[in-house]
Structure formats: C-alpha cells, structure tokens
Amino acid sequence: MVFREVIAELKAAGASWIQFDEPTLVKDLESHQLSAFSAAYAELESALSGLNVLVETYFADVPADSYKTLTSLSSVTAYGFDLERGTKTLELVKSGFPAGKYLFAGVVDGRNIWADDLAASLATLQSLEAVVGKDKLVVSTSCSLMHTAVDLVNETKLDDEIKSWLAFAAQKVVEVNALAKALAGQKDEAYFAANAAALASRRSSPRVTNEEVQKAATALKGSDHRRATTVSARLDAQQKKLNLPVLPTTTIGSFPQTVELRRVRREYKAKKISEEEYTNAIKEEISKVVKIQEELDIDVLVHGEPERNDMVEYFGEQLSGFTFTANGWVQSYGSRCVKPPIIYGDVSRPNPMTVFWSKMAQSMTARPMKGMLTGPVTILNWSFVRNDQPRFETCYQIALAIKKEVEDLEAGGIQVIQIDEAALREGLPLRKSEHAFYLDWAVHSFRITNCGVQDTTQIHTHMCYSNFNDIIQSIINMDADVITIENSRSDEKLLSVFREGVVYGAGIGPGVYDIHSPRIPSKEEIADRVNKMLAVLDTNILWVNPDCGLKTRKYAEVKPALTNMVEAAKQIRAELAKAQ
Q1: Does pTM top 0.85 for this prediction?
Q2: Domain total for the chain?
Q3: What is the CATH number of the domain that holds 63?
Q4: Which of 108, 258, 268, 415 is deepest in the core (most CB within 10 A)?
Q5: Exposed, middle or buried, 170 (CB in 10 Å: 0-12/13-18/19+)?
Q6: Residue 405 exposure: Cα atoms within 13 Å on the Cβ side
Q7: Sheet hosting strand 137-141, strand order edge to edge
Q8: Section 296-315 average pLDDT
Q9: Active site includes 444?
Q10: Percent of the chain's residues with pLDDT above 90
C-alpha cells in the first residue's frame, strides 16, 4: 500500500521513470524469496502502468535463478547490472536478454576511485549493443556515486601522477558521458588517449610495485601462520607474568579527543608549532590519561591515542603505498563522514609507527600498557583499495607491515598488544557461497601479524558493532588471546551463541556498556551484565570493558562510567571469593 501511494505521488508530480534498487538480488536467495519478489512486482503492476520502471542491482553478480526471475517481470522496462563486480552477469546478459527492454550497463565503477579503462568498457558496451540493440543500451555507473569522493578538482595538493590514475564522482560522470558518445560514433580521441596514457603510467610506475614486498606476500600463501602453543597454555604463561585479578578491567584504546588536543595536532601538521612542542603536549595528555586510569584502578591501561587522527589514517600515513586526499569525504554511517586512505601500491612499513608513544606510556606506570594497532583487514576494508591485484594480496602485505610493528612493540617491553579488527565482518561478500574464501584469508591475515611473538605476550583484538554469531568459529580461529567485542548495544545477542554450546577458551570481554550513548550506566546495571556473562562464560576468561573506544565521549561521562565499571567488577570479585 505504501509503495502504491508513493508511485501515485510520483506520477502526479510528472515522473516518467522510477528506479527501484534491489541489491538483495545478488545474494543467494531461496525459491520462496524469489516468488515473493515476483509477487510484489505483480501486485504493483497496475500502479506502475504508464511509467518506465528500472530495477537496479549492484555490488556483485546476479545468480542465474535471480536473473531469470528479474528479467521475467512484465511491469519492468529496464534492468541495471553492476558489470564491474558482476562479470558473470555479463555472460548471463549475452546468453539471453528480454526483447524490447533497456539494459543499464554499469561499466564505470561507482564504489572505487580509480579511472575507468575506457577502451575495455567501450569494447564491453559494443558487445552488448549486439545483444540488446543500440537504442536499448544505456551507459551507467555500477552503482550510486555516494560511495566515492565528489570531485578531484578539490584535490590541489595530491601528487599529479597518482591524481591522473583517479576518478571521483564528477570524473565518473564524464567517463559515462564519453563512453556514451563513443558508442554513438562521437569518440573523443584525445580523452581516450589521455585515459590510456594514465593507465599505462599506473601499470609501469615504480611507485606501485615493490618486488621484495610482492615476494614476501606470495610466500605467505603456503603456510598457516599460527602461534606454536595453544591459547590455554599461553594464557597461563601470561597470567604468571601479568598477575591480573579475576575479571580484569580495561578499555578499548582511545580516550576523549578534546578540542585542545585536535588543535595541537592541527597546528603541528600546519608547522605552526615545533616537533618538541607537539611531543611535549602529547606526552602531557598521555600522562593525564595514565593517571586517570590508575586513580580509577583499571588493571590493563591504554595510552589514550592522543596522537591519532583516525584509526586507519594514522597508520596509512606511515605506510608506503598509501596516499591521502584533502577533501575526499564519503558518508560512513548516519551523518558521520570519513576520508578513506587510497592504497595505490605495494604496502610496507619503513619505520616503527607506535613504538615511541607506547614505550613512553609504559614508562609512566607499573601496570600493563596495551600497544594499540589497527589490524590489516580493517585497514583494507576502510580504505579505497587498489584494483590491479586481488584484495587478499594487499591484505597480506598490510599484515606483514603490522607484524613488524608487533615485534618491535614486544622488543620494546610492551607485554599486551591489541590489534583491532573492527571491520572484519564488514568485508563479508554478499553471497554466502563466497564467505568461506573471504574469512579464510581475513583470519589468516590477522594471524600473520602476531604469529611470531612469545607465549607471554598477550594479543588482544577488538570488534565493533555487528552481529558476530554466524562467524564465531572464524573469530575463534583468529587465535587471539583476548577478544573485546560489542555486546550491550545489541541487547547481549552475542551471549546467545555461547548458550547454544559454542566453546570459547580464550579471554573475552563482551562490552558492559554502550559508549555511543552519553548515558552513564550505573554500577548495578554493569554488575547485572557481568553476571549474565558469567552464566555462560568461565570466570577465568571473562574481561570487563566498554563496548568500544572512548574517543567520542567527554570526560564528564567517561570518568563516572569507568568508575562504575571498576566498582562493579570489584563487587563481583568479592562475591565470587565469598562463594568459594
């Protein structure tokens, strides 16, 4: 009924075309789901009468049964397919396309920022023209352009050579237009020649390829890269060294990013203050964060990450093979926008990235100080990734770079190292049939980062807001010593997987309160959450921590919330001791 009303209003407003986005069709759908899809459009057929109707799919191949269902809809005028990520869909179209229907051919990549291979796209379009007819073929992007930055014109400081390899939303519109004109016999030879030259430059540039990195990443494929001993043996060795209480408390990494802190970083980047002034300011902030945690009596500390702008950008700025935009903002979620790094070449770590600050923080306290790193899968999934090699190869390269950092942290006396993989689940392919391959190389990438450390070095990882129940075995396979994971915002759905019999022997800290809310949880509320965890998890593996980092919160919220968290942990420790 709602769709009927919307369609009627669009008709009344003079619309002649309506687009329905149906990306769910690229998933592995059951027959009853496809039947429901057909029934829905049949129900709307009378309301759509007199309109041109386009159904768009994107982000992956459309399975053969879904393609057959979609192209049999009588109420639909046109079909849009992602031919950038849907190469098998191209073969389906060539093997049979409904007569008299329009094909919106998504040949220009709407999800990444690389310039299109115009010659290849034109050849694809010409082959399709013979199938669907010249007057029924529409040149299109593979999906909405909301996933890429707006305009390269705004990037006045970007390296000219790398800039020539890129196309943001405005440039992609120009590419679509140029392809359409070429298809109509009005090819802009100069534009196509400049595109070919840029592609050749990218393929041959020594900035892209590092033979040493390529060899090291290739060598990884034949090995499993696991730590030598079991997690239970490692936890015993770590406990002897760390001597932590039952239900140890910690936070996830970041502390509030104040206006003053952002000003210091901004002025240092603009060279308005000296390196010495910057270092002193950051040292003072770390000292404040350490003191706060000691006063709160938190067991495993963090340095608060005052030197970091973003958990991916900070590392990308120190790794080779990355470049950054000044205005390449894209929507992340809600009203939040980010500037993803661009991975254009082979990735390596020229110098230590976090060791200086972590060692400084550890020198300020006798308590364990966590070294804080972003994991390779998260760096990959939250960047614009090069498209000239498989994603897993790039991920392995990043893993090797992080591995060097882990080993330097360990050599520097850091006994607890957290490697965040907030975006592990986010990278899952839409097709379930492709999940296993992705999870295999993603989990392997994580293990690569820490496979060489001693048993006494405790490896943590953290995962943010998502439903992890369906990939819990892959999480276990990561072989981390401790995982901190979202729990409170999803109404403790994570715990259901353990109630269903999944055995988890490593340390785990399901978040006890939601840091994305300014609300301060009471001690009683946190204690209740911990007790619910204890009903399904062993006392000796349970940690107490917030859901995520504290970067977005204010100290007026953080201090009382953490106070209540620590007091709840102490209360339950006392109850457990009394019960024994």
Answers
A1: yes
A2: 1
A3: 3.20.20.210
A4: 108
A5: middle
A6: 30
A7: 17-21, 52-56, 78-82, 102-108, 137-141
A8: 95
A9: no
A10: 85
